[in-house]
Amino acid sequence: MKSLLTTLTILLCFTNHAISQNKSSIDKPNIVIFYVDDLGWQDSELNDLDEPTPWETPNMVALAKEGINFTNAYSPAPTCAPSRAAMLSGLHPTKTGVTHVSGGTAPKSTKRSKYVTPFYPIGLMPENFTIAEALKMNGYTTGHVGKWHVGALDIQKSTKQGFDFAYESRGAHQGPKREKNRVNNFATHDEGDRYRLSDEKYPPFTKSSPNGISYPKDMVTEKALEFISTSKDEPFFLYLAHWLVHAPIHTKNKELLQYYSDKLGIEMPTKDIPIKTGGQTNPFYGSMVTSLDWSLGRIVDLLKTTDDPRHPGKKLIETTYIIFSSDNGGVEKANGDIVTDNFPLDQGKKYAQEGGIRVPMVIAGPQIPKGETKDVLINQLDFFPTVLNLTNSTVPEKYSSEFDGLDISGVLLDNDKEVADKNGNAREDLWWHFPHNTDSQMQSAIRHGDYKLYKNLIPGTYELYRLYKNGKREDLEEKFDIAKDNPKVVKDLAARLEKYLEEYNAQFPYKNPSKFKAEETASIPVIVNDTYDAESRKATITLEKGKSDVVEPYVLIRIANKSALKKKGKLKKHSTTFIKVPLEASKNNLEYTYTVPENIMEYGFVLIDENQFMVQSEFRRIN
């Protein structure tokens, strides 16, 4: 909870969300968000199109039988950190500013591009309001287990963002090191093995193990179980963010690896060399997917067998909503491996195409119908407002008014056919913005009904695909660009997309002056004076007259943990980060001054001109 909010202020500012007519009578139901890393839409048996996946996910299927499987569900972004920041805050990535992973660094371009990626922060900051803070404010015990990845500074830790409990180690996902590798680093039954194989047996069932196989001890799963067991006396919120199935692609479960090698009809790997066969033929990855499914099964089994002390006569499964999804689409290649195949979806992680953003999603819990499949458009941005409604929780209006998702309780509980806003207007579209990586990946996109429109940010051109037609699959593969034949559709969707980009102040790739010809950069701003006065702490740059106008000036300042401020020398990656501070121009638009606060380690000026060139001053270390 934000420390500055007094009880009186909270009471005055609370806003009530509409209560669904079929709202469960459960008093403050528990919430579990089971969030997976890099699980593709075709990596489980939930949305199995065309050729069946070889990966077995019985617990995901069982959960879907207990709730609703959403086939048109999307992540907020095609990569990890922006999706997590958006889901936790309820804000679109362009609003949090977190549009890619590993932010908080000075903008730069790659060798293959003439453009500079716009600056973006490394994660959420204290002023961001999270779903954990909201539920804690409403009497919930909150726990985070697994991957955080939305800020590494002390002020960005999960326990500073509303979580009472946190365990963020990798568990059994920890990769092999030094002489160990993925073909000799398997768990055993030895008591001293930190990943000791379980005495209990679980699927799959094999000829050699007809009663099931053992699984390595996974502390991510164990800590999640522990949190539920120790928190059940109060309403609880568990954000279980698995490191699975992210690279490194490996498993500590030798018996499971053997099972998938046999199923795929290949030899058990004995050399640590990349898997180069196409499709879904990587037995290491299959083992990871099924291990993830095993973890989900452990969580659900505990909920099924544990009495709810707050609701005598009921088990926790009867008083808990479970939301299962993935942060982005599947990774098709990693570290030399062919990992998976998202077909029929195009591309994968780091792409705005369907393979990068369409994700599995199942929601189950009190009053939610069992075994249904729905094709309504859903985004993980919807989790925050929906959870508030399902738990009858209230938050200050200054936060709820900023939400970019919608409350989908009507779809979950009332069989509504469409997701609607507070005014009853049906959702018409979802949109994404990814100005990163290669030129071809730098795209914005909008899904509207059957159509998907892309804006290629570098040339500024549009592509149009029709995914469905009259409710039936049309071009889910996004093979046929029909933009030329449908100018009216392009015009309409482009206008919608451009409006979003403008309203959200989306940041775009900028031209790198060093990559363009001299005649193209002759008019760009030139810094002729760059000074810093240590006594007043004033930093000033002066520009040459007669050059192009600056349309966006700002300063990047490096903040750090207190411990890092005391040290000299090289700055550690996870103990410091840059943040962006907008600047006001001088009257003649030629001089910019910034008073550097105390405890700032480094700063640099960044100027965007009217022709989209980015000019940077020298970055000055001052502490």
From TrEMBL:
It holds the Pfam family Sulfatase. InterPro entries: Alkaline_phosphatase_core_sf, Sulfatase, Sulfatase_CS, Sulfatase_N. Keywords: Calcium, Hydrolase, Metal-binding, Signal. Its cofactor is Ca(2+). The keyword Metal-binding applies. Residues 1-18 form the signal peptide. Residues 29-392 form the Sulfatase N-terminal domain. Belongs to the sulfatase family. PANTHER family: ARYLSULFATASE FAMILY MEMBER, ARYLSULFATASE G. This is Sulfatase. It comes from Lacinutrix gracilariae.
